C-alpha cells in the first residue's frame, strides 16, 4: 500500500496485481506523478502478461495431452475471443450475477470429447487452476462460473447426446443436456415413459441430477437421483470411472452430494419410468378475499397424504393493481379426470374442483404446461436451452415438518404486500418420498417432511442499492419463517449432503483421487446468502 501518493495496490494470490489511483496530493511533483504513472502501467502490464502466460502454458499443455484430432481453437476460448463473452453470458441464468466485480475465468473450454476434459484436468493441476463445470448455468448463486482463485470454466454444452433404450427402460444422458432435451428425446421414443426430474426445461442435467432433482413425479417415483443407475466420472487424475470402477461409496456420494465435489460427471445412466397415456392437469387460483389462507392451511394437512398419483403444489404471489395475495393450486394427476374428481372430493373437497377446471393431455404435454407454455406449443420448444425469463432474482429454500398456523401464513402475506415481484412455491412430499430411506442417497429430506418451500424475489434494476433492498427483504422473510420450518435444515445439509463424503469418508475421496485441497467446497456464506 503506497498511501503517500494515494495508491491502493492489491495482489491476487501473489500473481495478478492491479492498482487504482485513489487520490493525487495537490503538491505532488511532476517527477513523482511520472513515477506513479509508470508504476501503474507496469502493474497493468504485469497483470495482463501473467494471465497471458498462464493461458499460453495451458494451451501448450492441452496440445500435449489432447488427441491429434483435437482442435484447440474450437474448444479453448480466451477473453479476447467473441465466443468467450458469448459462452460466459449465455450460461448465466441469474442476471444478478452478470455485473459482479469478481474475477472472470482465464479460459472457457467447450469440449466435444471426454479426452479433452481429461487433458484439461491434468493441465489445471499443473497450472494450479481451479475448475468450474457448467451444464445449464441455473445454479442460483453462480457457483459454476465464479471463483476467488484463478480458474477456468468447462462448459459441457457440446456433450449432450441422449441414447434411449425403451426395451429395458433406460437412457444414457450426457451431462451437458437439458431436462427439456431429455424429455423431448424420451417422448420421441415413447408417449408412456417419462423421467422424474424438474419442471424448468432449460436446467442442465449435470447439476440437477447430482443435487437430487425433483419435479411433478416425485410423489410417484422420488427424485431424479433416486433413478440413477450408473455414471461416468472423470476424476482428478484424468481417469474415467463408472459405477463399478468408482465403487459404491463414491457412486452413492455423487447422487445428491454434488457431482463437482468429486470430479466431472460426463454422463448418467437413468431408469425411465412409466406414465399413463392420459394425465390430467388443473390450476385453481384463490385470493385473500376468496379465503386462500384457510385453503393453504388445509392443504398442508392433505398434500403429502394424497394418492401418490396426485401432485398439488401451491404458488403464492402478490397480484393486481391494488395488490392482493393469490394462491395457485397447480396439479398433475397420473390418470383421467373421471378418477381425479372423486379422489379430490374425498381428499380435498374444500378446493371445490370441477370437471371444467381440468384438462386431459399426454405426460409430455404436461411438461409444457408446467413450464408455462400455452396448449398446442410444439414439443420442439423443449430443445431451446435459453430460459425466456432471465431476470435479477434471489431465492432461498426451507422444509416444513409441521403445518404453519394461519397466523403464521398471514404474517407471510403481510410481508409479500411490501414487495413488488415475489413468489413462494410449496411442493408437497409424501408418497414414494416417504418410502425411501434418508440414507439411501445424500438427500435426507424424506419421511416426516410435509413439503418444501422456495422463496423468490425478482427485480428489474440491478443497481447495487436497489438490489440490496430486495436481498434484505428476502433475508428478513427467511428470518421470520424460522419458527415454522425445519430448524435443523442447515445442520443436516452440512452433515448429510456435503458431508455425505464423511459417510464415505476417505473411501470416496480416495477413489476419486481427491484430497481435501482438490474438493469443491460450499462455505457457510453460500448457504446463508
What does this structure look like?
The chain is an alpha+beta fold. Helices cover 34% and strands 22% of the residues. It is built from 19 helices and 20 strands. The strands form five sheets. Strands 17-14-16-15-19-20-18 form a seven-stranded antiparallel beta sheet. It has a five-stranded antiparallel beta sheet with strand order 7-8-12-10-11. Strand 10 (228-234) and strand 11 form a beta hairpin. Helix 1 crosses helix 4 (114-127) and helix 9 crosses helix 18 (505-511). Mean pLDDT is 83; it is low at 1-33, 40-46 and 489-528.
Features:
529 residues; alpha+beta; five-stranded antiparallel β-sheet; 20 strands; disordered N terminus
Structural class of the secondary structure composition? alpha+beta
Largest sheet: 7 strands, antiparallel
Strand order of the biggest β-sheet: 17-14-16-15-19-20-18
Helix content: 25-40%
Q: Which residues sit in consecutive blocks of at least 5 with pLDDT less than 50?
A: 1-33, 40-46, 489-528
Measured between the Cα atoms of the first and last residue, the distance is 31 Å
Estimated share of beta-strand residues: 15-25%
Give the C-alpha Rg.
25 Å
Q: Shape, please?
A: globular
Number of strands: 20
Write down the overall mean pLDDT.
83
Number of helices: 19
Amino acid at each position: 500500500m503506497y498511501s503517500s501518493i494515494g495508491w491502493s495496490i492489491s495482489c491476487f494470490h501473489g500473481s495478478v496485481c492491479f492498482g487504482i489511483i485513489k487520490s493525487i496530493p495537490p503538491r505532488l511533483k511532476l517527477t513523482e506523478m511520472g513515477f506513479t504513472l509508470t508504476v501503474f502501467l507496469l502493474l497493468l502490464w504485469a497483470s495482463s502478461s501473467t494471465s497471458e502466460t498462464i493461458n499460453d502454458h495451458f494451451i501448450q499443455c492441452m496440445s500435449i495431452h489432447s488427441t491429434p484430432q483435437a482442435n484447440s481453437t474450437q474448444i479453448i476460448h480466451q477473453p479476447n475471443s467473441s465466443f468467450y463473452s458469448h459462452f460466459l453470458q449465455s450460461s448465466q441464468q441469474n442476471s444478478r450475477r452478470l455485473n459482479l466485480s469478481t474475477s472472470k475465468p482465464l479460459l472457457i473450454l467447450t469440449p466435444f470429447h471426454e479426452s479433452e476434459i481429461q487433458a484439461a484436468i491434468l493441465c489445471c493441476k499443473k497450472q494450479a487452476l481451479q475448475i468450474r463445470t457448467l451444464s445449464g448455468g441455473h445454479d442460483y448463486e453462480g457457483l459454476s462460473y465464479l471463483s476467488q482463485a484463478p480458474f477456468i470454466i468447462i462448459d459441457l454444452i457440446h456433450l449432450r447426446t441422449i441414447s434411449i433404450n425403451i426395451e429395458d427402460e433406460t437412457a444414457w444422458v450426457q451431462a451437458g443436456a437439458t431436462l427439456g432435451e431429455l424429455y423431448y428425446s424420451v417422448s420421441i421414443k415413447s408417449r408412456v415413459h417419462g423421467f422424474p426430474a424438474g419442471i424448468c426445461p432449460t436446467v442442465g442435467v449435470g447439476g440437477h441430477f447430482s443435487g437430487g432433482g425433483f419435479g411433478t413425479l416425485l410423489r410417484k417415483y422420488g427424485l431424479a437421483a433416486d433413478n440413477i443407475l450408473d455414471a461416468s466420472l472423470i476424476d482428478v487424475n484424468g481417469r474415467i470411472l463408472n459405477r463399478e470402477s468408482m465403487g459404491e461409496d463414491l457412486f452413492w456420494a455423487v447422487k445428491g452430494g454434488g457431482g463437482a465435489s468429486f470430479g466431472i460427471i460426463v454422463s448418467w445412466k437413468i431408469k425411465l419410468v412409466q406414465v399413463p397415456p392420459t394425465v390430467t392437469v388443473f390450476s385453481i387460483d384463490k385470493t385473500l378475499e376468496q379465503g386462500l389462507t384457510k385453503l393453504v392451511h388445509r392443504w398442508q394437512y392433505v398434500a403429502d397424504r394424497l394418492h401418490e398419483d396426485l401432485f398439488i403444489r401451491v404458488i403464492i404471489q402478490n397480484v393486481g393493481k391494488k395488490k392482493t395475495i393469490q394462491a395457485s393450486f397447480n396439479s398433475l394427476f397420473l390418470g383421467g379426470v373421471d378418477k381425479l374428481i372423486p379422489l379430490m372430493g374425498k381428499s380435498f373437497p374444500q378446493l371445490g374442483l370441477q370437471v371444467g377446471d381440468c384438462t386431459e393431455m399426454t405426460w409430455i404435454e404436461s411438461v409444457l404446461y408446467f413450464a408455462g407454455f400455452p396448449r398446442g406449443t410444439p414439443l420442439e420448444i423443449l430443445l431451446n436451452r435459453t430460459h425466456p425469463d432471465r431476470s435479477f432474482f434471489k431465492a432461498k429454500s426451507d422444509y416444513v415438518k409441521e403445518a404453519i398456523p394461519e397466523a403464521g401464513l398471514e404474517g407471510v402475506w403481510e410481508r409479500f404486500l411490501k414487495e413488488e415481484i415475489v413468489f413462494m412455491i410449496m411442493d408437497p412430499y409424501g408418497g414414494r418420498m416417504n418410502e425411501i430411506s434418508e440414507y439411501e442417497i445424500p438427500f435426507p429430506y424424506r419421511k416426516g417432511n410435509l413439503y418444501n418451500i422456495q422463496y423468490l424475489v425478482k427485480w428489474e434494476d440491478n443497481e447495487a442499492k436497489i438490489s440490496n433492498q430486495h436481498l434484505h427483504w428476502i433475508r428478513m422473510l427467511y428470518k421470520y419463517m424460522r419458527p415454522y420450518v425445519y430448524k435443523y435444515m442447515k445442520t443436516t445439509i452440512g452433515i448429510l449432503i456435503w458431508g455425505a463424503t464423511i459417510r464415505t469418508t476417505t473411501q470416496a475421496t480416495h477413489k476419486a483421487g481427491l484430497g481435501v485441497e482438490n474438493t469443491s467446497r460450499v462455505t457457510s456464506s453460500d448457504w446463508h446468502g
